[in-house]
């Protein structure tokens, strides 16, 4: 029953706190040269650490695609004084988790461990060796090449992987962002341990590294940890800047045969960089176009109104240079051309007219209202620390986030999209294209 | 308020982790469980219905999942699409999932929005407005989901066909998403009947976790859910899968590059958390064989012998229906699935003969207990675990019991369950036989991926 008294009690208990505390980020440069971002939090007896370096796949050479990824993959497969089994067994013995991530820009190694000194010290000891003294054994490279080649050949049979590879090529042309993140078959076949060691020496440098620390340690302990993990990284001479991405691409449409029952469609262009002045208008606009879960325009047109696809989305991949703006969907072959036309029309309309005031208000309500969910765990905060440090974003990024979103206007979105997205000049890739087209390129 | 502490017996340190969980059952039978966590001003609401694909019957498969989709299509008070719009406008994230055993819906929001989430969720528990028009559109979405997740995914396709071979009688033989021909013939009345049968407060568990106070949650739950009438629940049909009486083998052909070998053994799951011991020993067996990169299969078959390019081990001790212990492996280039199977069998034989070391067992236990600490970083996952345990009938109070039992497993028990259950008469072997993408002429396109 709906009783007014209960309503009042509920309202009291759930008074909205406007000033939601963002984590207090401590920041310094380690004696090693590494930049450190630290949030001290003793709620859970555990520690998360991540070390990032600019050593992603965009630093690969075209003929040697895969060296960067293999360097990262082999870090924990043998270090000075530790076999690969010593490393994985040593971490498992104390319940610690050694992980990592790898993309076009960034290679990182991360650790989650209990914060009690016995587990923490042992986990950090192993991680320090992995980061600073990897050995890249010949026998292990040979084995891992065989495994990776199998995986790459398998990926070449999968429609989503085929589409992604062709899409990156169509969007980025000769820019290294077009290189497959894990490498390609001819590149991987040629990798030698000498190349891995050279790549490591050139790219895993203390002065380029960012250490993110989150959890149950003190400031003094965090300082010591940052030094322990980076003081012995190679000196290095700084990484050459990436070439600029060509922002204007011609219209293209690539149709690739595949026996799957669905067509996998990707559409896009080079989008925006992490520090693009249009970042917030583009981000908020994309929520309305195809980023906002069940309530975006693409979802509404393609799925809710017509039942044409299970998944349809758009997103910007913000990187050091502009990463891709990408729209994707899967739909059964017979209706693929119709769905593609509908998506193109929806995008063109959005770019031409921008969102409505009502849509913008709804977008802000979701992004601002949902902000606390972005930083509600140690894991999420650690990831923000790494990103803020790696991309030289302001330390107040999280504090400013909601006000930056609030300030976005319809006019800003329209002009930002007009600058970045030209619907008539986008790349389209269709894998498992409708049979009527007989699989030819056009 | 119930408080339980788990002593973490790690190699060097010992810590106690305490968890507070409060529960109340409303007069209409809805069980409300609250897990307070005040680290961030957010909450998650999850409503779990004890109805999954195992409650479906032949010819009507996929209806549990189809209804899950239709739950977003409006009620007599809230028009289609409006549920998602209101949650989005409140800054929320939401979704739902269906399994063999249950169907669940969730929203994550700022703590001030819990009343809104409860209002919307309780409304669709009893006011759903199913129309033939919305059904016709949504079933097409479900078919696209099936094509994407199963028909065009060789490993998922193999798993679907394998489950149909493993179970002769138990409804686990049917895929959660449903057979395509059942989806084609399903209508809005099937969905309506499913909704009427299972969507009732006395067949559900409400889990709220995050920055809340249990007393206030109970008051809100009473207000929003308390007025929904209890319904008579049908007696559930109990299935007993007939004993397997010999090895089963099957081949699935699909477009792929690499073969895959999957070996699944019937195995018990937890029925009585306190008295059982075998499911816990099987959990430890799975950990020793595949729980980390230094575990048996990866160490021996991927790293040392290099017969496999990847290996995996699966066992879930908690489910409504019968359990499976599964090994899978992709042979390395140049090795056959027959060689792969021989190698896996040799590992099992060695384990049954020599047993495992105390160090290996201790390692797996250390990982389990550290995982209990790491779990505290995810309020959502903690709520998931509570909802799941309630829905399968073991109850969340079994969670600390299970942790204690896991810590008590001996090396000899691990050897014994391997010997007892990893037997040919219990076994189904499935092989993915990779096929070229096409018999058609290749279309080599400049700049495109190599297609063959």
Please tag this protein with its features.
heterodimer; A: 442 residues; alpha+beta; Cytochrome Bc1 Complex, Chain A, domain 1; six-stranded mixed beta sheet; disordered N terminus; disordered C terminus; B: 452 residues; five-stranded mixed beta sheet; 21% strand; globular
* Radius of gyration of chain A, whole Å: 24 Å
The CATH class assignment of the largest domain in chain A is Alpha Beta
Mean pLDDT of chain A: 93
Strand order of the largest sheet of chain B: 1-2-3-7-4-6-5
Poorly predicted regions of chain A? 1-19, 437-442
Instruction: Quickly name the level 1 CATH class of the largest domain in chain B.
Output: Alpha Beta
Sheet having the most strands of chain A: 6 strands, mixed
CATH topology assignment of the largest domain in chain A:
Cytochrome Bc1 Complex, Chain A, domain 1
Q: Ranges of chain B with pLDDT <50 over ≥5 residues? A: 440-452
**What's the average pLDDT of chain B?**
93
Total domain modules of chain A: 2
What is the distance, rounded to the nearest whole angstrom, between the alpha carbons of the first and last residues of chain B? 62 Å
CATH architecture group name of the largest domain in chain B: 2-Layer Sandwich
Please tell me about this protein's structure.
- Chain A is of the alpha+beta class and 442 residues long.
- Chain A folds into two domains: 26-230, Cytochrome Bc1 Complex, Chain A, domain 1 (2-Layer Sandwich); 252-441, Cytochrome Bc1 Complex, Chain A, domain 1 (2-Layer Sandwich).
- In chain A, 44% of the residues lie in helices and 17% in strands.
- Chain A has 17 helices and eleven strands.
- Chain A has helices at 4-13, 67-74, 84-93, 117-132, 138-155, 159-172, 185-190, 193-203, 219-230, 279-291, 297-304, 336-353, 357-369, 371-374, 378-390, 397-407, 410-420, and strands at 26-29, 35-40, 46-53, 97-102, 107-114, 210-215, 252-256, 262-270, 312-318, 322-332, 427-431.
- In chain A, strand 9 (312-318) and strand 10 (322-332) form a beta hairpin.
- Chain A starts with a helix and ends in an 11-residue tail after the last strand.
- Residues 1-19 and 437-442 of chain A have low confidence and may be disordered.
- With 452 residues, chain B is of the alpha+beta class.
- Chain B folds into two domains: 2-225, Cytochrome Bc1 Complex, Chain A, domain 1, CATH 3.30.830; 248-435, Cytochrome Bc1 Complex, Chain A, domain 1 (2-Layer Sandwich).
- Chain B is built from 15 helices and twelve strands.
- The longest helix of chain B is centred in the N-terminal third of the chain and has 20 residues, at 132-151.
- The N and C termini of chain B lie far apart (62 Å).
- Chains A and B meet through helix 1, helix 3, strand 5, helix 4 and helix 5 of A and helix 2, strand 6, helix 4, helix 8 and helix 10 of B.
């Amino acid at each position: 029953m709906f009783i007014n008294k209960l309503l009042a009690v509920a309202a009291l208990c759930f008074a909205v706190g406007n000033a939601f505390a963002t984590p207090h980020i401590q920041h310094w440069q380690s004696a090693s040269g590494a930049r450190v971002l630290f949030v001290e939090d003793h709620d859970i007896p555990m520690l998360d650490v991540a070390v990032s370096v600019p050593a992603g796949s965009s630093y690969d050479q075209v003929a040697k695609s895969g060296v960067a990824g293999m360097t990262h993959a082999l870090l924990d497969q043998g270090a000075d004084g530790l076999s690969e089994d010593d490393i994985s067994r040593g971490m498992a013995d104390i319940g610690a988790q050694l992980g990592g991530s790898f993309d076009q820009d960034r290679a990182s190694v991360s650790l989650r461990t209990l914060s009690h000194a016995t587990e923490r010290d042992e986990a950090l000891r192993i991680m320090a060796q992995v980061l600073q003294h990897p050995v890249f054994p010949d026998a292990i490279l040979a084995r891992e090449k065989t495994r990776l080649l199998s995986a790459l050949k398998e990926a070449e049979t999968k429609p989503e992987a085929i589409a992604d590879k062709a899409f990156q090529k169509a969007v980025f042309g000769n820019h290294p962002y077009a290189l497959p993140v894990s490498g390609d078959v001819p590149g991987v076949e040629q990798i030698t341990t000498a190349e891995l060691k050279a790549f490591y020496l050139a790219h895993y440098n203390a002065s380029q590294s960012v250490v993110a620390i989150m959890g149950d340690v003190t400031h003094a302990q965090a300082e010591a940890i940052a030094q322990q993990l980076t003081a012995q990284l190679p000196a290095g001479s700084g990484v050459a800047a990436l070439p600029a991405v060509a922002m204007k691409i011609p219209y293209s449409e690539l149709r690739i045969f595949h026996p799957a029952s669905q067509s996998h469609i990707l559409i896009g262009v080079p989008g925006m960089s992490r520090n693009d002045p249009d970042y917030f208008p583009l981000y908020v606009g994309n929520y309305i176009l195809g980023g906002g879960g069940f309530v975006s325009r693409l979802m509404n047109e393609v799925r809710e109104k017509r039942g044409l696809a299970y998944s349809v989305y758009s997103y910007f991949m913000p990187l050091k240079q502009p990463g891709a703006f990408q729209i994707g969907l899967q739909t059964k072959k017979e209706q693929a051309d119709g769905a593609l036309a509908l998506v193109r029309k929806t995008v063109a309309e959005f770019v031409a007219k921008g969102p409505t005031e009502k849509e913008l208000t709804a977008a802000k309500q979701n992004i601002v209202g949902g902000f606390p969910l972005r930083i509600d765990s140690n894991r999420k905060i650690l990831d923000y620390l790494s990103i803020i440090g790696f991309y030289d974003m302001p330390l107040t990024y999280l504090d400013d986030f909601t006000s930056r979103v609030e300030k976005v206007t319809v006019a800003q979105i329209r002009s930002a999209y007009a600058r970045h997205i030209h619907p008539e000049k986008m790349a389209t890739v269709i894998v498992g294209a409708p049979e009527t087209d007989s699989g030819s390129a056009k | 308020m119930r408080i339980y502490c788990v002593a973490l017996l790690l190699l060097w340190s010992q810590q106690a982790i305490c968890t507070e969980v409060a529960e109340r059952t409303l007069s209409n039978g809805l069980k409300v469980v609250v897990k307070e966590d005040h680290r961030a001003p957010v909450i998650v609401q999850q409503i779990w219905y004890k109805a999954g694909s195992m409650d479906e019957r032949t010819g009507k498969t996929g209806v549990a999942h189809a209804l899950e989709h239709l739950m977003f299509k409006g009620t007599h008070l809230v028009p289609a699409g409006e549920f998602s719009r209101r949650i989005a406008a409140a800054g929320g994230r939401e979704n739902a999932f269906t399994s063999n055993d249950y169907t669940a819906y969730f929203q994550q929001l700022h703590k001030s929005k819990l009343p809104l989430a409860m209002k919307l969720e309780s409304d669709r528990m009893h006011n759903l407005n199913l129309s033939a028009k919305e059904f016709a559109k949504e079933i097409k979405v479900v078919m696209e989901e099936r094509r994407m997740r199963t028909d065009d995914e060789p490993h998922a396709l193999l798993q679907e066909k394998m489950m149909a071979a493993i179970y002769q009688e138990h409804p686990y033989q049917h895929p959660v998403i449903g057979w395509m021909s059942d989806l084609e013939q399903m209508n809005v009345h099937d969905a309506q009947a499913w909704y009427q049968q299972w969507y009732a407060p006395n067949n559900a568990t409400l889990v709220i976790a995050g920055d809340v106070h249990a007393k206030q949650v109970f008051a809100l739950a009473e207000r929003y859910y308390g007025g929904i009438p209890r319904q008579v629940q049908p007696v559930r049909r109990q299935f007993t899968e007939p004993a397997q009486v010999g090895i089963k083998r099957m081949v699935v052909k699909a477009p792929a590059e690499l073969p895959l070998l999957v070996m699944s053994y019937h195995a018990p799951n937890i029925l009585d958390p306190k008295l059982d011991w075998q499911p816990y020993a099987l959990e430890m067996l799975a950990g020793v064989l595949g729980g980390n990169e230094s575990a048996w299969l990866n160490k021996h078959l991927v790293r040392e012998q290099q017969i496999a390019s990847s290996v995996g081990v699966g066992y879930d001790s908690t489910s409504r229906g019968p359990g499976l212990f599964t090994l899978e492996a992709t042979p390395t280039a140049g090795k056959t699935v027959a060689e792969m199977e021989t190698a896996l069998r040799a590992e099992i034989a060695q384990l049954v003969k020599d047993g495992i070391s105390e160090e290996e067992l201790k390692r797996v236990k250390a990982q389990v207990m550290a995982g209990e600490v790491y779990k505290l970083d995810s309020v959502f996952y903690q709520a998931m675990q509570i909802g799941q345990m309630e829905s399968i009938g073991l109850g969340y109070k079994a969670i600390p019991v299970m942790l204690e039992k896991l810590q008590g497993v001996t090396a000899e028990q691990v050897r014994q369950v391997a010997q007892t259950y990893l037997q040919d008469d219990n076994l189904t072997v499935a092989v993915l036989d990779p096929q070229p993408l096409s018999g058609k002429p290749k279309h080599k396109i400049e700049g495109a991926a190599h297609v063959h």
